[in-house]
Amino acid sequence: MKASVKKRVSLIMGINDQVEGELSLPQGMRISDFLNRKEKGDFIVVTNAKIHRRDGSQEEAEFLAVNKNHIVYLKEIKL
């Protein structure tokens, strides 16, 4: 098994939700390359996620499968 690196990210999902959580990327891979991989399907896994809704409500999830087609933008959060 190849080593992986965890990256803290913020995703904007459509006009309603913001998700903050961790992506686990293969060592040396850029986030943009990770998102553009066709062979891995349409979903990415976000762990330790916090979901912030437009109405101000929030929820947490240890595991969240996110459809890449619904991501408006993504930015890395530097720790």
Verbal overview:
The chain contains one helix and five strands. The chain is mainly beta and 79 residues long. It has a five-stranded antiparallel sheet with strand order 4-3-2-1-5. The longest helix is centred in the middle third of the chain and has 6 residues, at 31-36. The protein is globular. The N and C termini lie far apart (26 Å). The model has no long low-confidence stretch (mean pLDDT 89).
Q: What about the largest sheet?
A: 5 strands, antiparallel
Helix/sheet category: mainly beta
Q: Measured on Cα atoms, how large is the radius of gyration?
A: 12 Å
Question: Alpha-carbon distance between the termini?
Answer: 26 Å
- Ranges where pLDDT stays below 50 over 5 or more residues in a row are none
**Count of helical regions:** 1
Helix content: under 10%
Which outline best applies?
Answer: globular
List the strand order in the largest sheet. 4-3-2-1-5
Question: What percent of residues are in strands?
Answer: over 45%
Secondary-structure element pattern, one letter each: EEHEEE
Number of strands: 5
Mean pLDDT: 89
Throw out a few tags for this protein.
single chain; 79 residues; mainly beta; five-stranded antiparallel sheet; 1 helix; 5 strands; globular
Summarize the helices and strands and which ones pair or pack.
Layout: E1 4-13, E2 17-26, H1 31-36, E3 43-53, E4 58-67, E5 71-76
Antiparallel strand pairs: 1-2, 1-5, 2-3, 3-4
